[in-house]
Structures are given as structure tokens and as C-alpha cells.
């Protein structure tokens, strides 16, 4: 019986040794896979950080482009306004010439034709929201008026008041196209 047991143990021994070797091989494989998993996780973390960095870069570039587009739109708007103002500033003296012509033309029909032209030019200015600067009877404002003559006054209520307008002033919004040329009481 002892022999049977010994034989049986001898047969079991290679199976146990085989299982131990398989177990060690599995442990080695698990360690290798765990190491590969750690490496893959590290790479994934790096790639995620890189992806976030690129995403931030894209967002910054988009914001920079939006700011550039806004600046260019504002710049184009200002250039357009400057161009319109330059044309209107050149057109205003034509009103003065037309007004003088109307006053000096003796023929009523010709004067009426010049008045029509005056109204058309004035309508153009009005279409661009150009407004006359109030002057006569107003307090002198050097931002709006150009005093070309000063006259003495004895009335303290008239000091610094505009008593005569030589040329009307015009503005477009807050921008003065031409100052009013005026006579001011002092």
C-alpha cells in the first residue's frame, strides 16, 4: 500500500509542478499586462493633456480671430464714416455758394432753378443725418462756433451771446463738420 501511495504521490508531483509553473507563467503575464496597462494609462493621461492643450489653443485662436474681425469691422465702419464726413465737408461750402448765387441772381426763373439745386444738396446732407448747429441767440461754444467778430454790449445778459451768423455750422452726430462762423457780443 505504501507503494501505491508513493506511486500516486509521484504521479501527482509532476501535475503540481506543472500547475505551479503555469501559475508562475500566469503571474508573469499578469505582471507584464499590468505594466503595459500602466504605460498605456500614462500615455492616455499625456494625450489627454495634449488634447486639452490643443483645444485651449484652438479656443484662443478662435477668440483672437473674433477680436480681429471685430476690430476690422470697427475700423471699416470708422473709415466709412470718415469718408462720408470728408465728402460732406466738401459739400457744405457748395451750399454757401448756392445761397449767395440765389441772392445775387436777378432773373426769378434762374434763381428758382438754383434754389432747387440748393434744396437737393441740403436734402443730401439731411439724408446723412447732418444737422445745422444752432447759433443765433445761443451762448457761444468754442466747440461748435468760430467767433470771427466780437462786438461790445452794455447788456450783461447778452455777454457771450451770438448776435449774427456769417456761415452756418453743421455736425454729424457728435462730429462737427464745420463750425458756425459768428459774431459774439462781449
Question: Could you explain how this protein is built, in words?
Answer:
- This protein is an alpha+beta fold and 186 residues long.
- It contains 2 helices and 6 strands.
- It has helices at residues 2-104, 108-127, and strands spanning 130-133, 145-151, 162-167, 169-172, 175-178, 180-185.
- The strands form 2 sheets. It has a 3-stranded antiparallel β-sheet. Strands 2-6-3 form a 3-stranded mixed β-sheet, with no helix packed on it.
- A hairpin with a 2-residue loop joins strand 4 (169-172) and strand 5 (175-178).
Helix content: 55-70%
Distance between the termini: 144 Å
Work out the radius of gyration.
Answer: 47 Å
Q: Major sheet: size, sense and barrel closure?
A: 3 strands, antiparallel
Number of contiguous helices? 2
Q: What portion of the residues fall into strands of 2 or more residues? A: 15-25%
Principal-axis shape: rod-shaped
Structural class: alpha+beta
Low-confidence stretches: none
Count the E strands: 6
User: How are strands sequenced across the largest beta sheet?
Assistant: 1-4-5
Order of helices and strands: HHEEEEEE
Nearest-integer average pLDDT: 91
Task: Describe the structure concisely.
The chain has helices at 2-104, 108-127; strands spanning 130-133, 145-151, 162-167, 169-172, 175-178, 180-185. The chain has 186 residues and is an alpha+beta fold.
Amino acid at each position: 500500500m505504501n507503494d501505491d501511495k508513493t506511486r500516486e504521490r509521484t504521479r501527482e508531483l509532476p501535475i503540481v509542478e506543472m500547475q505551479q509553473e503555469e501559475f508562475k507563467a500566469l503571474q508573469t503575464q499578469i505582471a507584464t499586462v499590468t505594466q503595459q496597462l500602466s504605460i498605456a494609462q500614462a500615455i492616455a493621461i499625456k494625450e489627454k493633456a495634449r488634447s486639452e492643450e490643443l483645444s485651449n489653443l484652438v479656443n484662443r485662436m478662435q477668440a483672437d480671430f473674433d477680436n480681429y474681425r471685430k476690430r476690422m469691422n470697427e475700423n471699416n465702419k470708422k473709415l466709412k464714416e470718415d469718408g462720408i464726413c470728408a465728402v460732406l465737408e466738401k459739400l457744405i461750402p457748395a451750399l454757401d455758394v448756392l445761397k449767395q448765387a440765389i441772392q445775387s441772381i436777378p432773373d426769378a426763373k434762374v434763381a428758382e432753378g438754383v434754389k432747387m439745386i440748393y434744396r437737393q444738396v441740403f436734402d443730401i446732407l439731411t439724408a446723412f443725418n447732418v444737422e445745422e448747429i444752432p447759433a443765433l441767440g445761443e451762448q457761444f461754444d468754442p466747440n461748435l462756433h468760430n467767433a470771427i467778430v466780437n462786438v461790445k454790449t452794455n447788456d450783461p445778459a447778452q455777454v457771450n451771446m451770438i448776435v449774427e451768423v456769417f456761415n452756418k455750422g453743421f455736425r454729424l452726430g457728435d462730429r462737427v463738420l464745420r463750425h458756425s462762423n459768428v459774431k459774439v457780443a462781449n
